[in-house]
UniProtKB/TrEMBL annotation:
Annotated stretches, region: Disordered: 1-21
One Gene Ontology term from the biological process aspect of the record: signal transduction
Entries under InterPro entries matching the protein: Kinase-like_dom_sf, Plant_MAPKKK
SUPFAM superfamilies assigned: Protein kinase-like (PK-like)
Gene3D superfamilies for this protein: Transferase(Phosphotransferase) domain 1 (1.10.510.10)
GO molecular function terms listed in the Swiss-Prot or TrEMBL record: protein kinase activity
Protein name stated in the entry: Uncharacterized protein
Length: 99
């Protein structure tokens, strides 16, 4: 998802993170996450202590306002009206046999 291409173009290749927006630390973190050789895998503790994640503690998300989808806004503005179908007995014409 980062590059818009499959990470592994062949079964023997290493992941390729050609994205100018990725920092060197981010690329290193991803490379260590996606190691195929099981003897070279980083442990979860090692990954959690990577400098990329440590530097993420200092990053603050931008202030954003919550947006609701248009459909939800319409539901809030309109009060729902529920119609029930009349019962069949209310539709039948009652004939009085005495008349």
């Amino acid at each position: 998802m980062i590059t818009g291409k499959p990470l592994w173009e062949s079964s023997n290749s290493e992941p390729n993170f050609e994205n100018p927006k990725l920092s060197t630390e981010a690329k290193d973190f991803l490379n260590n996450c996606l190691v195929r050789n099981s003897s070279a895998h980083w442990s979860a503790d090692m990954l959690l202590n990577h400098s990329f994640l440590k530097s993420a503690d200092d990053v603050q998300p931008p202030d954003t306002k919550k947006r609701q989808c248009d459909g939800m806004l319409l539901l809030r503005k309109k009060k729902p009206t529920f119609r029930t179908q009349p019962h069949i007995r209310d539709l039948v014409i009652h004939l009085d046999p005495d008349s």
